[in-house]
């Protein structure tokens, strides 16, 4: 599993949560960092969770697409956002690209159900 979140404390929280559920987690603050950590190929990502708004104008949808380009287009991904200014068009685009949107605060049970339904081993 790959988690991309630019806020270190939130990233650590996701990592601890997912590891407590038994997942191996690649936790990164950007798509570049995630791809660097995956570079050796020892881990094939089975799921990608990314915050919508990342640093330097990057978005979670772009980050998910970059990981998919490197490891396969069928990897499930979800975008998390707490930003109420995200336009409906951007959210529709994410959904059309197979990226469900979860709004912060994320409900742990909802997230776990989503993972169970879509995680690729």
Automatic annotation (TrEMBL):
Record keywords: Phosphoprotein
Pfam families the UniProt entry points to: Response_reg
Cited SMART domains: REC
GO biological process: phosphorelay signal transduction system
Stored InterPro entries: Bact_response_regulator (IPR050595), CheY-like_superfamily (IPR011006), Sig_transdc_resp-reg_receiver (IPR001789)
Positions bearing 4-aspartylphosphate: 51
Gene3D superfamilies per the UniProt record, alphabetical: 3.40.50.2300
Chain ranges of the Response regulatory domain: 1-119
PANTHER family named among the record's database cross-references: STRESS RESPONSE REGULATOR PROTEIN 1 (PTHR44591), TWO-COMPONENT RESPONSE REGULATOR (PTHR44591:SF21)
Protein name: Putative two-component response transcriptional regulator (CheY family)
Organism: Magnetospirillum molischianum DSM 120
């Amino acid at each position: 599993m790959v988690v991309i979140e630019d806020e270190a404390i939130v990233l650590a929280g996701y990592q601890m949560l997912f590891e407590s559920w038994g997942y191996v987690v690649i936790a990164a603050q950007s798509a570049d960092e995630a791809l660097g950590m995956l570079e050796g190929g020892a881990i094939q990502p089975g799921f990608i969770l990314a915050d919508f708004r990342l640093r330097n104008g990057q978005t979670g949808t772009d980050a998910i697409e970059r990981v998919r380009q490197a490891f396969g287009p069928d990897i499930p991904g979800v975008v998390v956002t707490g930003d109420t200014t995200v336009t409906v068009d951007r959210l529709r685009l994410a959904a059309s690209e197979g990226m469900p949107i979860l709004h912060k605060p994320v409900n742990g049970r909802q997230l776990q159900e989503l993972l169970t339904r879509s995680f690729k081993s």
